[in-house]
Amino acid sequence: MDAQEPKTPTAWRDITPDAARRLVIAAVEAFAERGYHATTTRDIASRAGMSPAALYIHYKTKEELLYQISRVGHLLSLGLLTEARDGAGPPAARLEAAVRAFVRWHAEHHTTGRVVQYELGALGPEHYAEIVDLRRTTEGVIRSIVTDGVAAGDFDVPDVSGTTLAVLSLCIDVARWFNPDGRRTPDEVGELYAGLVSRMVGARTA
Amino acid sequence: MDAQEPKTPTAWRDITPDAARRLVIAAVEAFAERGYHATTTRDIASRAGMSPAALYIHYKTKEELLYQISRVGHLLSLGLLTEARDGAGPPAARLEAAVRAFVRWHAEHHTTGRVVQYELGALGPEHYAEIVDLRRTTEGVIRSIVTDGVAAGDFDVPDVSGTTLAVLSLCIDVARWFNPDGRRTPDEVGELYAGLVSRMVGARTA
DNA sequence: TGCCGCTCTGAGCAAGCGCTTAGCCCCGCC
DNA sequence: GGCGGGGCTAAGCGCTTGCTCAGAGCGGCA
Questions:
Q1: Which Pfam families match (chains A, B) (predicted)?
Q2: pLDDT band for position B12 (50/70/90)?
Q3: What is the distance between the terminal CA atoms of chain B, rounded to a whole angstrom?
Q4: What is the model's pLDDT at position B6?
């Protein structure tokens, strides 16, 4: 377990002050490992190298920590997706690029991904609603690429809505099973999944 | 919410005595709704219509309840899968049957499925090890069908291991997003997914 | 009728939870 | 050189948690 050096994932680079950033990183690790409800504020604080009370100087509640992680995580992955959608090239290439980037992110940041994808039920009602909205947007981005492909005659998709759901679901679940000590690198998983998704939408082999 | 009649899912039919069965069903609902750690023994007991203390007559701990649910759930879905694998017909048909059954089960019993698939981290070490073993077996069943298809020249799968993982992942994640009030019935999702998986493995169109 | 054993309850214990408070340290500014 | 305020800690409050225990109710058997 000593391979886990205390690197700062790029996601949290611009959180200040330093203590606040250490707290989010500690919270991500703890939430991903044990789940939100099984994680104590004492655990988060001690991982960040401070006393339990110090947490409350930077965050009002434990839930607010989860909310920040969830918000930033969703915005980042949504950004990757929109970038791919707005890129150049035919729908097939853009869908592959989107899947590659999305999957790569969920593998690379699989701890954050786990929190983002599987702990949102612990959010308070208004934060939950906000996150659900982001998720709907995310789904919309993939759907639009699929729709483009169908319209262009490049894809063969009988059920656009269902297939979109399945593609998104497949990519999201990477955060659950990905193991950095496993056989595949994030890039390799992204490549594999891009190919699988191409087949799912019946993309014309160029 | 009154559409939720207190039916007895077939999975728990043969648990006796009656109170013990009511407790598992209550626990499945509660765990699926809020997660294992956010569920209190008082909540489970009151859903089952009894006092908190009564739970401990039938189960030693709250974790044992989770273990029973996890064990039975894994065995049931594993049974469906092996049945499909050992059925008649070419690999393509058997893979489709497996996916159809597995997905249908995870949609129909999506509450149980959620607990089975997403709460196993809360199991104690020895129970966890036992469940992980069942999961390896499950993966092996799908892999063997894929391998059969490749050997028969019916599938085009560059990466058997990775594709198997993706297929399993896709099916499992149904438990997370499936909504019984949504547009799709379990049968429809099973059908959709069987088609998508066929494409993923590059099955020869019969 | 008397007794046993199974099921269940009311009351409650020890531990751990999220979070608060009072006060200390220390750095920058006048 | 004094002081104000942000960052931090030790202590602990009020509450909930998983779980226990002594005893009540009751059906079946002798």
A1: TetR_C_24 (PF17932), TetR_N (PF00440)
A2: confident
A3: 45
A4: 53
CA distance B52 to B49: 10
Q: Range of A74's domain? A: 67-200
Dihedral sign of CA atoms A148, B171, B137, B67 in order:
positive
pLDDT at B9 over 80: no
Residues whose beta carbon sits under 7 Å from strand C: A 39-42, 52-53, 56, 60-63; B 17-19, 45, 50-54, 57-58
Q: In B114-170, which ranges are E strands? A: none
Q: Is A35 within 8 Å of B193 when comparing Cβ atoms? A: no
| CATH code where residue B193 lies | 1.10.357.10
**For A97-116, what is each residue's pLDDT tens digit?**
999 999 999 999 999 999 99
Enumerate residues 100 to 159 of chain B having a beta carbon within 8 A of any beta carbon in chain A.
118, 121-122, 158-159
| Other Cβ atoms within 10 Å of A45 Cβ, number | 20
Please report, for chain B, how many H helices and E strands are present, in that order. Answer: 10, 0
Q: CA-to-CA distance for A56 and A191, rounded, in angstroms? A: 42
Band of residue A205 on the pLDDT scale cut at 50, 70, 90: confident
Q: Please answer whether residues A155 and A146 qualify as being in contact, where contact means their C-beta atoms are separated by less than 8 angstroms.
A: yes
Closest CA to A189 of B24, A52, A197, B133: A197
Total domains in chain A come to 2
What is the Cα B120 distance to its own chain's centre? 12
